[in-house]
Amino acid sequence: MFTLDRVLLAEAAYLLVVLAVCLVVIRDTRNTAKTLAYLLLVIFLPGVGIAVYFAFGINYRKRKLYARKLDGDEHLRDRLGPHLSQATGHWLAADPQLAADAKALDQQPEQGPPAITADNDVRVLTNGEEKFPALMEALEQARHHIHLEYYICEPGAVADAIKAVLMRKARAGVQVRFIYDDFGSRAIRGRWLKELRAAGVEAFPFNRVRLLLLANRLNYRNHRKVVVVDGRCAFMGGINLSDRYVNRPGDQRLHWRDTHVRVEGSGALFLQYLFLCDWNFCSGQSIAPSAAYFPAPAHRSLGTGMLMAASGPDSPLPTILLTLVRAITMARHEVLVTTPYFIPGDSIIDALRVASLSGVKVRLLVPGISDSGFVDAAARSYYGEVMEAGVEVYRYTKGFIHAKTVVVDDRIAIIGTANMDHRSFELNFEVNATFLGTAMATTLRRAFMHDIADAERIDATAWAQRPFYKVMPERLARLVSPLL
Q1: Out of 402, 421, 422, 451, which one is annotated catalytic?
Q2: 349-377 pLDDT, tens per residue?
Q3: 409 is catalytic
Q4: Cβ atoms of 125 and 416 closer than 8 Å
């Protein structure tokens, strides 16, 4: 039987626990917005908020989970740095303007091998209709190895067709290595993976999640979509291995708009380096760099300049965020942004507003149809802020836009795996490619203009006058947006 004294004692004990957790949140969370969001959860959702923080909020990053990965990455970097720099030096001297842009955009000069290359043949792939045939063709041509790394792999026509090629290649003696995110690709657990491994394909989850609901590593996801074939041809971008990315004539499913890129040249070597860092970590192996994995750059005339940016929980700096902010601040005439999730934080918001107020034409393309109502509500809370500064915001109405691209003037184009949100900047393992020069900027600008033909522009005045009942849910969602 409970007495008043026992009730009071239990309440006091609970308050002490809440206070202790709040102090831990304040001590360990560097981002002010995240700190406030976690404090709100802990205080106003008794028990649940504390569980959420200890499951997802504690920064186990370098201290535990990724200490071994950091050591392995540094070892590989030291061995590869001189080799990859061969693809950079001659180009930096050949084009001073592009070299200046590359140096201005390089936000990780001390974190890895030189990420600037120039002898690349690049092809933009729109939607799964273009990406998957090109990928299948490259896989069929593999002679030594195939390396794949995906956030989502879902059984279906697309993934099963690629699986069949991988199994056949592995049986023929090609080394096939596959990294999958254990959360995003949970649908392939079981027979799908067993069949793949039985054929000789090596497959490992990046972070094995054994207890889905209370696993901190669930918070740190490998969101990269990277394929490297024989060290010469590579793919990266926003398209996962799933049927949802293919739009077939007469299909009643939601139209899916996305962007990927095929790279042939020294840019593939950086993606190879990135893959092997991830592979050695998740597999427990130690694959040493060799000519088979890092073939000498082909002797060719200068092609597309390419600067790679990779970041994740193992990064000392949010490299992708810094690169995006730097690119926006370099704009003189125009900035075109496409992102499916716009929860940008102060740095991106301020960069867009400063650019717009400086006379740069800034356009933002976001989904009109979202795959997450809660995330969409949080994103809508930011539209008014940028529109007040003159940014044009368009909502894509043809389907769901999942592309992650940025175009700056006629000289910078960015394609990658990172969304414009806190998760991509701080929690996920991501990779973006920045292309320098007119050709890629023109291609992506043309794609952007084609997409906004299927979008509606938000009227800034009408948006600012929306009723309270529409604005309030967005503001509430924004309170926890740093945690999304």
Answers
A1: 402
A2: 999 999 999 999 999 999 998 877 778 88
A3: yes
A4: no
Residue 71 has pLDDT above 50, yes or no: no
Burial of residue 3, with CB atoms counted within 10 A of its CB: 0-12 exposed, 13-18 middle, 19 or more buried: exposed
Active site residue: 147, 163, 169, 404, which one?
A: 404
Integer Cα distance of 452 and 365 in angstroms: 7
Tell me how many degrees the CA angle 372-413-315 measures, rounded to the nearest 5: 65
Which domains are present in the chain? 4-58 (no CATH), 63-102+114-304 (3.30.870.10), 319-483 (3.30.870.10)
Nearest C-alpha neighbor of 275 from the set 149, 428, 434, 145: 149
Catalytic residue, chosen from 73, 106, 409, 451, is 409
**Local confidence band at 241 (pLDDT 50, 70, 90 cut-offs):** very high
SS3 414: strand
Choose the catalytic residue: 182, 230, 258, 376: 230
To the query of whether residue 69 is one of the catalytic residues in this protein, the response is no
Q: 85 by DSSP, 3-state: which?
A: helix
Three-state DSSP state, 334: strand
Mean pLDDT, the chain, integer: 84
Tell me if residue 333 is catalytic: no
Q: Looking at residue 109, what is its pLDDT?
A: 55
Residue type, 318: P
Helices 32-44 & 468-479, crossing angle to 10 degrees? 100
Lowest mean pLDDT among 85-94, 303-312, 332-341, 442-451: 85-94
Q: Quick check: 156 pLDDT over 90?
A: yes
Alpha-carbon gap, residue 445 to 315, rounded angstroms: 31
Options 131, 145, 223, 422, the catalytic residue = 223
**For residue 371, what pLDDT is reported?**
76
For residue 308, the tally of other CB atoms under 10 A from its CB is: 27
Q: CB under 8 Å to 245, separation ≥6 — which residues?
A: 127, 128, 131, 132, 158, 239, 256, 258, 402
260 catalytically annotated: no
* Spatial CA neighbour of 67 closest among 350, 259, 413, 313: 313
User: Given CA atoms 179, 185, 190, 193 in this order, what sign does their dihedral have?
Assistant: negative
Distance CA 268, CA 226 (A): 10
Supply 426's token pair: 């701080």
Give the Cα separation of 125 and 442 in Å (integer). 15
**pLDDT surpasses 60 at 85:** no
C-alpha span between 127 and 246 (Å, rounded): 7
78 has pLDDT over 70: no
Q: Which two tokens stand for residue 383?
A: 């539209």
37 versus 350: which is more confidently predicted?
350
112 pLDDT more than 70 = no
